[in-house]
Amino acid sequence: MVTGAGTLVNVATVLLGAGIGVALGNRLPQRTRDLVTDALGLVTLLIAATSAMAVLSPDLSGHVGDSAPMLVVLGSMLVGGIVGSLLRLEQRVEGLGGWLQRRLEGDRDGAARRRFVEGYVTASLVFCTGPLTILGSLNDGLGNGADQLLLKSVLDGFAAIAFAASFGWGVAASVVTVVVVQGGLTVVGVLLGDVLPDAHLAAITATGGLLLVGVALRLLRVREVPVADLLPALLVAPGLVWVAHLVA
To answer: Which secondary-structure segment (H or E) carries 149?
Structure first.
């Protein structure tokens, strides 16, 4: 398969799922749509838990020592959160969602705009912070095939149906983020020439799991965690693994 084709398939499945979800959502009562969102929050929490368990990876502990993995993830979240907050990433992502809403739907009332932006932000975070996004895009760029991205495409397509049933066309707009993030990681894979070491990937996966916990809390309406502000943690994590390995 041509390099980058996995991301294109992912975009197609998200758009298809969003279209189906919007068609279904208009026929569902608000109570049912809220229940769908709650179910998505619980499933996202399950996925987050399985990803966060990578902090117990033998590869990571063997590389940085038994006591360092938790500190690596903690440091990644704190440093990444400070950087993201100073850069106002959450506001910028929401601003991009609002701009897309105006371009695609025109001026709408405040409630419709908030629903679109929430759908865009939530779908973008769910589709772009998981381990399959990182490893699949890198492997695609490295020429190892797009099997992982194809699996992710199927999962994202079904998730898009459920998200769009609750949030509408904002979910479809998340393909902009998918193209930028996965396309960028694919280019990084082409430049790297080799996949990330297992220890570094485990740290990124565990950190991504915690970010998904924040997404789940938003979906469950427990707390509006500014997850986008924490995204730099994914870049900080492998750097802290390298530092911890030098110190260990």
So the answer is: helix 147-167
Which residue bears the tokens 């179910």? 39
For the chain, first and last CA: distance in Å?
Answer: 41
Mean pLDDT of the chain: 84
14-65 pLDDT per residue, tens: 999 999 999 887 777 778 778 877 887 888 788 788 888 989 999 999 999 8
- Residue 211 tokens, joined: 């970010």
Q: What is the pLDDT of residue 89?
A: 85
**Domain map of the chain by residue range?**
5-247
H helices present in 29-67, as ranges? 30-52, 58-64
Q: Which of 216, 241, 192 is nearest to 130 (CA)?
A: 216
Q: How far is CA 50 from CA 28, 43, 187, 202, in A?
A: 31, 11, 27, 12
Q: Which amino acid is at 237?
A: A
